[in-house]
């Protein structure tokens, strides 16, 4: 006799091999469990109730994992759209691993009057919205945005006024290299809600990666910026680019940065190799070492109440994307162009993507191709690489230009390996089996079995259980 298995859940259930056990993850109910082989076999039978007869216990467990009352369903965690403003693409230092060619970019500064109509349009539309998050979110990015301090100040003042006029909140974020003088530090502390400062390691590492144009290091000045900013009641995040040389130092950096700077968060990111980075002898870290370093760093930082962040491996979700692309975010360039991604257009066009959305023209008219914006968001779900990955509702494709562009290989790349390992370990920590996560990470065969498995869907295992 077959039992009826109601399926109200649009999400997959995933099962990951974990030495002699299995980690089961159900994104729809946001639940995870560790189980043995026979329990997983019983669970898999629930997928084919017409052919097999699942036990009542298995059925109950399956339903608990997959069916939540609508009001108990885990909320989707899709990020709110942002207005990303690049006041300049130029930079005041010469990082060897820069991804944007900022050191050579001309010092073109955004005329703030170009930003105003776009800000007004976004604030007005938020003001008309019924419910939802009615916050005008502005993120300043570069180049180095602080190089264009006058433009920045004018834009922030205008955005505050526009938000007031339309009855919405305004929130500002800014990513900086931290090489800035007193006036800029004061402005950041007083006006910006979240400041992200790049700090790539100890003095020697940071100075080698982020020198001034004359070759002198920048660590001392960046550290002073961080100390000054910490005196303000802002959210302060450090962003650390990890290379093959610094990967083993991640736990030490978590301890030092937490103790010395008391940031709210430290975001560790593996180096994206550029020609400049390779010329400087820097390479992406081994993804297994990165995952081990990350989990160790997270445990150390937690003792200081500091969050450790990995964008694609955050346990928030389900979500359709972990990057700004696909959230409806608009990115304004110094020349008035509006795009969906902050990378140079040549980069996305070479991957077969068209991410330009419009512009603010000389008369101040704002043109945004809303159809293309919607098309970009809906196209992100079609990534063959991610279709069978248990991170498809958390990482959800990582960087859609560099990692999962159209036609990308179905095999996981190194970033996938790190994301999969960190996500699995974090799930294990949340269900109280963190020591099993550490065992898995330190066993090369166990880590590879989990990281490289091509199809995590429970239904794919049903055939072999
Ligand atoms: S396959 Fe890679 S990019 Fe896609 S969801 Fe998994 S980890 Fe992310
Ligand atoms: S596609 Fe990649 S570079 Fe573009 S916004 Fe997303 S993460 Fe950033």
Question: Mind explaining what this structure looks like?
Answer:
The structure is a single chain. With 465 residues, the chain is α/β, with parallel strands linked by helices. It folds into two domains: 102 residues, no CATH class; 351 residues, Aldolase class I (TIM Barrel, Alpha-Beta Barrel), CATH 3.20.20.70. 37% of the residues lie in helices and 15% in strands. The chain is built from 17 helices and 14 strands. The protein has an eleven-stranded mixed β-sheet. β6, α5 and β7 form a beta-alpha-beta unit. α3 runs parallel beside α4 and α14 crosses α16. It starts with 13 loop residues before the first strand and ends with a helix. The relative contact order is 0.12. The protein binds iron/sulfur cluster (2 copies).
Fold topology:
Layout: E1 14-18, E2 21-26, E3 31-35, H1 37-45, H2 56-66, E4 83-85, H3 112-128, E5 135-140, H4 149-165, E6 169-176, H5 182-191, E7 194-198, H6 203-209, H7 219-230, E8 235-242, H8 250-261, E9 265-270, H9 275-279, H10 287-303, E10 307-309, E11 330-332, E12 337-339, H11 345-349, E13 356-360, E14 366-368, H12 370-379, H13 384-387, H14 414-430, H15 434-441, H16 444-452, H17 458-461
Parallel strand pairs: 4-5, 4-11, 5-6, 6-7, 7-8, 8-9, 9-10
Antiparallel strand pairs: 1-2, 2-3, 11-12, 12-13, 13-14
The chain binds iron/sulfur cluster (2 copies).
């Amino acid at each position: 006799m077959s039992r009826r298995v109601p399926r109200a859940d649009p999400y997959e259930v995933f099962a990951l091999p974990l030495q002699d056990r299995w980690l089961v993850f159900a994104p729809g109910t946001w639940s995870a469990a560790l189980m043995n082989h026979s329990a997983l076999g019983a669970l898999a039978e629930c997928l084919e109730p017409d052919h097999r007869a699942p036990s009542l216990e298995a059925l109950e467990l399956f339903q608990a994992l997959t069916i939540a009352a609508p009001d108990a369903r885990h909320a989707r965690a899709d990020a709110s759209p942002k207005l990303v403003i690049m006041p300049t693409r130029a930079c005041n230092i010469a990082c060897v691993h820069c991804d944007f060619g900022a050191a050579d970019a001309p010092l073109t500064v955004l005329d703030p009057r170009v930003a105003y109509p776009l800000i007004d349009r976004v604030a007005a539309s938020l003001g008309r919205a019924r419910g939802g998050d009615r916050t005008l979110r502005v993120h300043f990015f570069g180049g180095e945005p602080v190089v264009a301090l006058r433009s920045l100040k004018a834009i922030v003042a205008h955005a505050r006024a526009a938000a007031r006029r339309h009855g919405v909140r305004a929130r500002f974020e800014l990513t900086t290299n931290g090489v800035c003088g007193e006036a800029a530090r004061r402005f950041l502390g007083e006006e910006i809600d979240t400041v992200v400062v790049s700090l790539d390691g100890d003095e020697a590492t940071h100075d080698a990666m982020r020198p001034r144009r004359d070759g002198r290091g920048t660590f001392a000045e960046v550290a002073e910026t961080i100390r000054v900013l910490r005196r303000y009641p802002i959210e302060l995040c450090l962003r650390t680019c990890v290379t093959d040389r610094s990967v083993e130092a991640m736990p030490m950096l978590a301890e030092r940065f937490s103790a010395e700077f008391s940031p709210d968060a430290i975001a560790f990111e593996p180096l994206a190799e550029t020609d400049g980075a390779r010329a400087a002898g820097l390479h992406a870290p081994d993804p297994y070492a990165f995952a081990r370093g990350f989990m160790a760093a997270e445990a150390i930082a937690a003792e200081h109440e500091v969050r450790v962040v990995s964008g694609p491996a955050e346990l928030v979700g389900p979500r359709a994307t972990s990057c700004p692309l696909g959230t409806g975010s608009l990115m304004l360039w110094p020349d008035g162009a509006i795009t969906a991604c902050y990378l140079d257009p040549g980069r996305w066009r070479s991957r077969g993507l068209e991410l330009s959305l419009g512009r603010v023209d000389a008369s101040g008219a704002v043109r945004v191709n809303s159809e293309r914006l919607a098309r970009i968001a809906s196209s992100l779900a079609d990534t063959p690489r991610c279709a069978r990955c248990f991170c498809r509702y958390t990482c959800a494709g990582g960087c859609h230009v560099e990692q999962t562009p159209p036609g990308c290989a179905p095999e996981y790349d190194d970033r996938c390996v790190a994301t999969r390992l960190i996500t699995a370990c974090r799930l294990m920590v949340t269900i109280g089996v963190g020591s099993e996560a550490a065992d898995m990470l330190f066993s090369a065969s166990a880590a590879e079995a989990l990281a490289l498995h091509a199809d995590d869907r429970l239904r794919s295992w049903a055939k072999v259980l």
